[in-house]
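Quick start: what a row looks like.
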Amino acid sequence: MALAEDLRRRILLLDGAMGTMLLAKGIKGCLELANVEQADVVADVHRAYLQAGADIITTNTTCADALCLKQYGLSERARELAKAGAELARRVADEFSTTLQSRYVAGSVGPTSRNLTLANDVTAEELAAAYADVIGGLIEGGVDLILIETAMDAANVRIAIEECRKINSEIPIVVSAVLSRIAGRVASGATIDKFLEDIPLDEVSIVGFNCSNGVKAAEESLKMLAAKCDKPLILYPSAGQPVVAANRFAKEMEALCRAGLLNIVGGCCGTIPAYTESMAKMVQRWRPRKTGKN
């Protein structure tokens, strides 16, 4: 498919934070509800990232699962909101796609509000049903890849992947974990090795990290991951605390691209289209990470 070919040819640019932008535009409460009630606002955010140079936009569905939506009394609308978010992003991405440059939609699948390993109030079956609703809606809505992001618990990731494969056996799956403050460990405390062992890695097309505390905080863990995993790698950290300016963020990311460590770069919490724009020219200067498939 075109995505696989693009990954071989160049470093792709993922968008930045959706929540940061929606909150700045005055959206309150359940952000995923905006996919149907304020779709024009969500579409404008997607357009802003595409205009800034993004190759991939992420659906506004990180908390669209039934467990997260429960606090708003919207659990039964999970599939509807996920599908609406996917259709919206698909429509905008298609506006910007050309014969020379495809624009892709990543279906965001968040960690839900429960980590199966720690929670005593949710079953594996309930978690599977929650993931199935969201992933089903995203695929029906036309996403190009499934992005299992902000992952902390390998058990959650494993179930999400299993549910995805029941629905679609071929769609690319990206797994992006949150790092702990200790280099080489994900937020659950598991080592990167252990996290990789505990997920069905053969079903994963791309793996990496998001959120965490900026680019620098992820650097050592990314190098560890690159040494252990022969897959394309993704990194889209937060703007950090204290916040790193867009040009500094891009320079820090460039060091990792120069080292041949990445295939997809982008931003998470706190990043806005200015961060995307700062990285757009930078990624053109460097070749993507070489894997067994390129």
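That is the whole record. The chain has a mean pLDDT of 96. The longest helix spans residues 78-96.
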